[in-house]
Amino acid sequence: MSFSWKGLRVLITSGPTKEFLDPVRFITNASSGKMGWALAAEAWRLGAKVTVVSGPVSTPPPGKILVQWVETAIEMRNQVLKLAKKADLIVSAAAVTDWRPKKFSPNKIKRREGEVHLALVPNPDIIGEIGKIKKKSGAKERKFPVLVGFALETHDLERAALKKMREKNLDMIVANSPASLSSERIRATLFLKTGVKKKLSLTTKRLCARSIFNEIEDFL
Ligand code: C5P
Questions:
Q1: Given the CA of residue 168, which atom of ligand 1 is nearest to it?
Q2: Which one of 1, 87, 137, 167 is most buried, by most CB atoms within 10 A?
Q3: Is position 29 annotated as part of the catalytic site?
Q4: Each residue's pLDDT tens digit, 144-181
Q5: Cβ atoms of 172 and 216 closer than 8 Å
Q6: Are 150 and 35 in contact (CB under 8 A)?
Q7: Cβ–ligand 1 contact at 43 (below 6 Å)
Q8: Which fold is adopted by the domain 9-105+119-219?
Q9: Average pLDDT estimate for 215-219
């Protein structure tokens, strides 16, 4: 019998997160959310039930996709942990801002002379947390939820990607470079924990998403 995505529940994280230091100032990154939308559109075309948890982006979601909007990494974590229990596949395409300001000032911080030092604390590793829960929750060969992450690096991409896949207990990792950020296109290599390595040529994010789902089909 051939594989069917019909009814499978796919959860995708997408976009950047914003980490506020006061009501009007925040740190973030250049993620556009386009990869997340491409994954959502492709999963929907395949017949899956798709939910996206997205940080703030300016490009609109494709068609009938259900989107849970969040701003901060903590909000994203809380939504994802709630939805993860019912997911068959989780694709973490979000560029979660790695740190947040240690203190949030409810009032706008006044301008003053001299240097200002900003103390940052690490944000929760969302997909890493889910990987840990999956590991703890039973048999080693447990397949679901299938976990897919992204690794974006400026150097030593393959080694860093493989390390992330292992440490976060992922089934697949999509290695790509910062040139993909905000771009319509992506040059990616897919690594599976089975040892499969698939180098894709420069392509659209939609076609990259198609290749990712093809590899997951083979994996399952
Ligand atoms: O930031 P890092 O390179 O570790 O990101 C690798 C993967 O982990 C990506 O799939 C990203 O979405 C996910 N991640 C996450 N929570 C974080 C940081 C990254 O889920 N705080």
A1: 8
A2: 87
A3: yes
A4: 899 999 999 888 999 999 999 999 999 999 999 888 88
A5: yes
A6: yes
A7: no
A8: Rossmann fold (3.40.50)
A9: 96
